[in-house]
TrEMBL record:
Alphabetically ordered keywords of this record: Kinase, Transferase
Keyword Translocase listed: no
Family membership noted in the UniProt record: Belongs to the ROK (NagC/XylR) family.
Annotated SUPFAM superfamilies: Actin-like ATPase domain
Protein name from the UniProt record: Glucokinase
Pfam families: ROK
Gene Ontology MF, one: kinase activity
Organism: Massilia eurypsychrophila
Repeat found in the keyword field: no
């Protein structure tokens, strides 16, 4: 009889989707499933769907050795609990992710914030990062602004599990204090455009209008790049990272702004070495698998 291959189950849970995968020790995805998360139904319903999405993946012929969970919110990786969450996912705070997975699957469980997981995935699967030592920072520019920090390949959670949550920091804008993610994100680009054009457009539409020569869109993009460059400059001086990875949905449009961002950093006196993320929407689930496999290695 052929020996069963060892695998991990991984899942990524956010405000839009739940993505699950069966992943081997090399990072290869053997099977996958996804479904909408529909967070308005409440945290308990999302948790139940998370378990169902994973459990629906065929595992016959495989030896399941661990589960990895990537989740939106502030995640306590030791207890596997959602320590805090925004209103985007009502009732998500307090959900016991690790306990639910351990009860269903009967194996050890590793949990982390979604961007922390994404960074773990990039460090594992992005060949351009092979051998990188020291501090590596990731920014995820999507609907909001997420972040993560790793030192010599190990994720930094922080005393209150909020290390890397750069989007929650405060900056001055229009005479008041606002969170950085209201400016440096896809939503931030839309907010800046609204202020200048007195009209509504999402981030991709603003980029398209800037490319077509619309003055207000070009001004919004310029202001957005100024805020992003200052953010990277400040991270450079606070953490002195070896590398800073930029990911999230906005990275897909980098042809419109990457060279301008580098020029702005140079104008500020320099900044960290930049690299685009490569895993896209798979980053969270691949990273969760990496954390699961690391937990297996730690017990060996």
């Amino acid at each position: 009889m052929r020996a069963m291959s060892r695998v991990c189950l991984a899942v990524d849970v956010g405000g839009t989707k739940i993505a699950a995968a069966l992943v081997d020790a090399t990072g290869a995805v053997l099977a996958s499933a996804r479904r909408p998360s529909e967070p308005a139904r409440g945290g308990a319903a999302v948790l139940a769907d998370m378990i169902a999405c994973m459990d629906g993946i065929e595992r016959r012929g495989h030896d399941l050795v661990a589960v990895g969970v990537s989740a939106a919110g502030v995640i306590d990786p030791r207890a596997g609990v959602v320590a805090d969450a925004t209103d985007v996912m009502p009732g998500w705070k307090g959900q016991r992710l690790a306990d639910a997975c351990a009860t269903c699957f009967g194996v050890p469980v590793a949990c982390a914030n979604d961007v922390h997981s994404a960074l773990a995935g990039e460090l594992w699967r992005n060949e351009a990062l092979a051998g990188v030592r020291g501090a590596v920072v990731m920014l995820a520019l999507g609907t909001g602004l997420g972040g993560a920090i790793a030192v010599d390949g190990r994720l930094l959670a922080g005393a209150h599990f909020i290390a890397g949550h750069f989007g929650r920091t405060l900056v001055q804008h229009n005479g008041g204090a606002v969170t950085l993610d209201s400016l440096v994100s896809g939503t931030g680009l839309s907010n800046l455009y609204r202020e200048l054009a007195h009209a509504e457009a999402d981030g991709p539409a603003v980029l398209a209008r800037a490319g077509a020569g619309e003055a207000a869109a070009a001004a919004a993009l310029s202001a957005w790049l100024d805020y992003l460059a200052m953010t990277l400059h400040n991270i450079y001086w606070m953490l002195d990272p070896t590398l800073l990875i930029i990911g999230g949905g906005v990275i897909d449009s980098r042809a419109h702004w990457w060279s301008e961002l580098e020029a702005r950093l140079a104008g500020l006196g320099g900044g960290p070495r930049l690299a685009p993320a490569i895993l896209g929407s798979d980053a969270g689930v691949i990273g969760a698998a990496r954390l699961a496999w690391q937990s297996v290695e730690a017990r060996a």
